[in-house]
């Protein structure tokens, strides 16, 4: 599973489209997205209410507590909104410790309301079921919700009943608002379940004589449910956390990932960094990142990512070329390093994946040499000797320094070498035995261990064709 | 119902059902006689890994592929359902290589058929599916689930259920999986290992996210102290991951002071666990522990 945050706009879009409730939900679809590319004439054509209503404007970039940070413009007309945006749009801001550019804003109608009309609601998932939190005093100063709110647990396979909502959550809600709110809360819960939300928070939720107003929303959905919810979600975007850019290369890899049973992940941390990684496996990739940071490389660590689950040669090529392209955009005076690391593959054919990487290295040999890139390789797994062999060869034929190690070397030893903390030993000879099977007949030479003497190794078998159905 | 009564009922419920499911821990122990079937048998992954298992020496006695019952695949019978497979072969364990849309249902089917051990390899099962599976799992005591999103379990030289390469294993190992809603956690494994006379030392590998390692530390404090305590060595990955960053298996995020590597390491150390700062040193660290206790 992978619970990912969605923007306020996306969350509201889902709500307005799909919620089933008798409560009068107001201002449906009344939100206007603003970036530095916005054509204001077009915007007011698409959203004529911008010209007639008082407005609220705020950034929609997964930033918490915008009110307290002075990032909400309230009760303005359209000119006022544009004035408010001038010093903020495309400006760098620091939120907590993250520095980022404010570039995506949302304009909505201003809803005048009193404190008594503000409520807080949050639904989130845990092992036991879904928790519904409700507080009759919502708003910017809601404070410690965990301590103050009324709480109701909807167990697995249970439904949320109107009665339990009234009894357990609405102790402090005035009578005249109970019916409207209860219908809304039940409708919201059903929406939460149907669209596979894992977190849904509305603060404040305003309820007055005109109906229900969703003034703010923070939400997360379970990305692995895409195949179930595609029709309702559409092409949903998952924005990066504030302070991190979304790169087209990341979207490209995410797309490759979605289309495959294999796993391909890439996050760009510092595009100008000189330490790049291409590590196999979720576990190993975390360990390599740890080691790089342990050895003082945290500021130069350019990316985090992994590839695993037996991607094909082509997929690995596409992954590798993306990284090689990114790392050869801007020169670094100390040159750069690429760490192609991993532990012992469970079942990924290392010869196949490495051939994909080698093909990419050949295609990028010019830029790699211009950028002073040194490559360090460490890997084990099915057919790894063949993989290491082709790596060593491409180093010789292109003139790019490539140091190649197998399972005789500790997984993260190449990090020390890459960072200059350790001398690079002589390349070890290729080990005498491999995993006990050959996948594709990618090589003609058969490496046979003396399996009779070694009780650890089962009999070597050749699988030349498997019956796939 | 008042809040405190509700809380008390929840606590009782949790403790009550916990005892129920914990009875199935013994099924974690596999050996050369364990009969295994494969769900998703005739698919690409099922076929490939089943052949590996057969080559390793695991007792694969059949498989399940709805609609293909009656055929033979890799030399063993194919059945239409887990129930039929269990009746036809007496299998005690099943391994699931079924894609995410159907994996949750596959686990449910295995539980319904009373399968003692279920190993689910699949990655990417929606959370809601696993919450339902976990809910069912906790209310029974026959079936033990390992996974999902795990490499499996192996008893070297005897039985291998999963995708791990067999030839590299010399000591017992279980990979329990990276997902937040999984069937077997550290405590389940620790109980089996602490009570198993053949297990001399335990290596626990953890990762950022969640609080499974902290719970394991609590368990060890209570059950593995004193003169008969077995040496436990651990490695926690993700020490340098800052809060809010998504990393590792299943995109673990450190949030709100919980789930960070430093906290896990501290908790484990307080329970007498020796924490190694590098996976490369796990072996030598365990060796030193054996030396200290004169176990060599």
UniProtKB/TrEMBL annotation, chain A:
Domain of life: Eukaryota
Domain ATP-citrate synthase ATP-grasp, first and last residues per copy: 2-233
Key word Ribosomal protein present: no
Gene Ontology cellular-component annotations: cytosol; succinate-CoA ligase complex
Gene Ontology molecular function: any one: ATP binding
Localization per record: Cytoplasm
Main localization category: cytoplasm
Catalytic activity: oxaloacetate + acetyl-CoA + ADP + phosphate = citrate + ATP + CoA
Top-rank EC class of the record's enzyme: transferase
Pfam families linked: Citrate_bind, Citrate_synth_N
Domain ATP-citrate synthase citrate-binding: 244-420
Gene Ontology BP terms: lipid metabolic process; succinyl-CoA metabolic process; tricarboxylic acid cycle
Keywords carried by this UniProt record: Acyltransferase, ATP-binding, Cytoplasm, Lipid biosynthesis, Lipid metabolism, Nucleotide-binding, Phosphoprotein, Transferase
EC annotation from Swiss-Prot or TrEMBL: 2.3.3.8
Region annotation Disordered: where it falls in the sequence: 442-469
Family: In the C-terminal section; belongs to the succinate/malate CoA ligase alpha subunit family. In the N-terminal section; belongs to the succinate/malate CoA ligase beta subunit family.
PANTHER family: SUCCINATE--COA LIGASE [GDP-FORMING] SUBUNIT BETA, MITOCHONDRIAL, SUCCINYL-COA SYNTHETASE BETA CHAIN
The protein, known as: ATP citrate synthase
Organism: Oncorhynchus kisutch
The organism's taxonomic lineage, starting at the top: Eukaryota, Metazoa, Chordata, Craniata, Vertebrata
Gene for this chain: ACLY
């Amino acid at each position: 599973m992978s619970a990912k945050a969605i923007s306020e706009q996306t969350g509201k879009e889902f709500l307005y489209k799909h919620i089933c409730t008798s409560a009068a939900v107001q201002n449906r679809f009344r939100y206007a997205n603003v970036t530095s590319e916005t054509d204001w004439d077009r915007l007011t054509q698409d959203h004529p209410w911008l010209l007639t209503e008082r407005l609220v404007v705020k950034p929609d970039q997964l930033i918490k507590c915008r009110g307290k940070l002075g990032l909400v413009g309230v009760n303005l007309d359209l000119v006022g909104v544009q004035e408010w945006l001038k010093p903020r749009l495309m400006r760098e801001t620091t939120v907590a410790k993250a520095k980022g550019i404010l570039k995506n804003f949302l304009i909505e109608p201003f809803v005048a309301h009193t404190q008594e009309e503000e409520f807080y609601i949050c639904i989130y998932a845990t092992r036991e079921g879904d928790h519904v939190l409700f507080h009759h005093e919502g708003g910017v100063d809601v404070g410690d919700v965990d301590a103050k709110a009324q709480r109701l647990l909807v167990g697995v396979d249970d439904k949320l009943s109107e009665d339990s909502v009234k009894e357990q959550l609405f102790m402090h809600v005035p009578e005249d608002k109970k019916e409207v709110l209860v219908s809304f809360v039940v409708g919201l819960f059903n929406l939460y379940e149907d669209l596979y939300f894992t977190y849904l928070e509305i603060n404040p939720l305003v309820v007055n004589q005109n109906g229900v107003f969703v003034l703010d929303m923070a939400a997360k959905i379970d990305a692995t449910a895409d195949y179930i919810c595609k029709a309702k979600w559409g092409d949903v975007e998952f924005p990066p956390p504030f302070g991190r850019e979304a790169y087209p290369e990341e979207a490209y890899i995410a797309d490759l990932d979605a289309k495959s049973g294999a796993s391909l992940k890439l996050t760009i941390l510092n595009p100008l960094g000189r330490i790049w990684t291409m590590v196999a496996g979720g576990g190993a990739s975390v360990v390599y990142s740890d080691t790089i940071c342990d050895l003082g490389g945290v500021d130069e660590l350019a990316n985090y990512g992994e590839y695993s689950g037996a991607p094909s040669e082509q997929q690995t090529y596409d992954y590798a070329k993306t990284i090689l392209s990114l790392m050869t955009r801007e020169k670094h005076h100390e040159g750069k390093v690429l760490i192609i690391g991993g532990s012992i593959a469970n079942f990924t054919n290392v010869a196949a994946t490495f051939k994909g990487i080698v093909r990419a290295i050949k295609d990028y040999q010019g830029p790699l040499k211009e950028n002073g890139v040194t490559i360090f390789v460490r890997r084990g797994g099915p057919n790894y000797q063949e993989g290491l062999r082709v790596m060593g060869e491409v180093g010789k034929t292109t003139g790019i320094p490539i140091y190649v190690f197998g399972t005789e070397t500790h997984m993260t030893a190449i990090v020390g070498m890459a960072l200059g903390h350790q001398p690079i030993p002589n390349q070890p000879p290729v080990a005498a035995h491999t995993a006990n099977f050959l996948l594709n007949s990618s090589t003609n030479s058969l490496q046979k261990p003396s399996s009779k003497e070694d009780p650890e190794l089962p009999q070597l078998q050749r699988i030349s064709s498997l019956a796939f159905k | 119902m008042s809040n405190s009564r509700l809380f008390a009922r929840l606590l009782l419920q949790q403790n009550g059902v916990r005892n129920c499911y914990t009875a199935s821990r013994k099924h974690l122990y596999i050996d050369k006689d364990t009969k295994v079937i494969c769900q998703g048998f005739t698919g690409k992954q099922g076929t490939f890994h089943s052949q590996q298992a057969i080559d390793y020496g695991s007792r694969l006695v059949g498989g399940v592929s709805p609609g293909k019952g009656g055929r033979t695949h890799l030399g063993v019978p194919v059945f239409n359902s887990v129930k039929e497979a269990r009746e036809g072969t007496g299998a005690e364990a099943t391994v699931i290589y079924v894609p995410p849309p159907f994996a949750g249902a596959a686990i449910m089917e295995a539980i319904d058929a009373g399968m003692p051990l279920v190993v689910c390899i699949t990655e990417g099962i929606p959370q809601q599916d696993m919450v339902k599976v976990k809910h069912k799992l906790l209310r029974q005591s026959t079936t033990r689930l390992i996974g999902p999103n795990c490499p499996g379990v192996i008893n070297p030289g005897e039985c291998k259920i999963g995708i791990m390469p067999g030839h590299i294993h010399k000591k017992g190992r279980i990979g329990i999986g990276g997902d937040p809603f999984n069937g077997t956690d550290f405590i389940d494994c620790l109980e089996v290992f602490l009570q198993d006379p053949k297990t001399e030392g335990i290596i626990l590998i953890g990762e950022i996210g969640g609080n499974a390692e902290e719970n394991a530390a609590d368990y060890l404090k209570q059950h593995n102290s004193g003169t008969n305590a077995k040496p436990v060595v651990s490695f926690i990955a993700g020490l340098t991951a800052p809060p809010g960053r998504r990393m590792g298996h299943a995109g673990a995020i450190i949030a709100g002071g919980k789930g960070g590597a430093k906290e896990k390491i501290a908790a484990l150390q307080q329970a007498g666990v020796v924490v190694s700062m590098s996976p490369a040193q796990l072996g030598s660290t365990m060796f030193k522990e054996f030396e200290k206790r004169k176990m060599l």
